[in-house]
Fold this protein.
Amino acid sequence: MKIDPNSSKDLSAQIAQAIKEAIIAGQLPVDERLPSEAELSEQFDVSRPTVREALKRLAAQSLIRTQRGATGGAFVNRLSFEDAYAQQITTSTLLLSMNAVSFETACEARYALERACAQLSSQRREADHLATMRAEIHRQSQPGLSDEAFCASDVAFHRALVDGAGNPVLSYQLAGAVEAMQPSMNMITFSARSRSEIIALHTRIADAIEAHAPDKADAALAELQTYTVKLANDVIAARATKP
Amino acid sequence: MKIDPNSSKDLSAQIAQAIKEAIIAGQLPVDERLPSEAELSEQFDVSRPTVREALKRLAAQSLIRTQRGATGGAFVNRLSFEDAYAQQITTSTLLLSMNAVSFETACEARYALERACAQLSSQRREADHLATMRAEIHRQSQPGLSDEAFCASDVAFHRALVDGAGNPVLSYQLAGAVEAMQPSMNMITFSARSRSEIIALHTRIADAIEAHAPDKADAALAELQTYTVKLANDVIAARATKP
DNA sequence: GACTTTTAATTGTCATACAATTAAAAATAA
DNA sequence: TTATTTTTAATTGTATGACAATTAAAAGTC
């Protein structure tokens, strides 16, 4: 691992890049301890603060974890699905909010992915996924529920649907798409009328999944997508006329 | 924005978190300049190196960019789709390699997403996506092509298919799934026999997209998935018997 | 042998200094 | 005046050295 002191990039960025590549290439296996900060500064011929900046860059990406104390140090971190979810969610959230992605586009992506999952989910879903979906539907029909809680329950419902596919890679991919839309969804006020409509569709989806009927699940999801976009457009239209 | 000096977490992690939340909440708009490092260290009552470690954490996530000089500083970065791709790819790659995700699981996720895209792509595809797909098919049938180049062309083909859906959010999501599988795909040796089989399927896909026939595209993709998994299993079986 | 204390290694934080970069301001020349 | 050059000031990048906090192992003690 070498760095170029005359490069235009920061030394800490170069060092982080070098270590990152070593991790990706598998040269540094999971739980391997990196040399101490003092040793790294000697190896790369830079100061300790520079090394530390590099390590913090890696820590920010969950590539390493650090521990203090005698046997401490920086260790290659096993990237967990949980860590990956979190990163995926912030990245997707910022992507949507900073790039003027329309609600419709985000919604289309989300439901395209979700319909792909529903196929698998109707084959494989297990009792607990179905139970979660039913429980969330029940929660959604409680009268006093706030809009935020309704949205959160909505996310949980769709999460169970996706997890039912039994493919962690799909779950991870979709977590971003679903949760990144939360801010937009929270802007929608869900009237009693719209809630009952959504609950009806959720019930149809759960029924279809339970009956191992992918086509019915697909149709219900398509309707839900159309309905969600319509609700959002109504909100946008209402704001435009009376700001 | 406040931090807790008695928290178990590093000061730099807390500061990074606080700024990150402000960015996500939209309190710090794109291209806004953060206070200088000296000012931040006063505000948070920490030293400059600590502030710098926090800023490097944010830079590693493409949340800010820094500039030297008189009018320099740290600026809130507009997270581009390109930056997001890159993050998505490394995260997905590490997720697969570090968590013993089977080739089959990864492949299933990839094709589930890709088939979802193909639906949209067959409705919307424009001339240039189709042209790219045809060009890559042509490249793949060149005799002297190395396995790496064949794989790269394969990625380009699927990329065009996905981009044909005209939904940047989908393209971003899938970039990870497709490119993260590159390392696994590169382990497969593509015989002349398997290449021609793949090329035939690619041609069927391109034809279906051109003819606006989502069902045919879906069927061809399903076959391609089955065939890819079979190829991979053959490689694994061959390694097991003769290591 | 079990418990306590000491020690050494390591990361976390701080203070300070200087180098490198850059845009604006000031000075100079045409 | 205008164009060019020089100076200046602000800012990030890097280095050095020091000390605090943490932790496991080693040494000591009962």
Notes: The CA atoms of residues 41 and 49 of chain A lie 9 Å apart. The first strand of chain A starts at residue 64 and ends at 67. The mean pLDDT of chain A is 92.
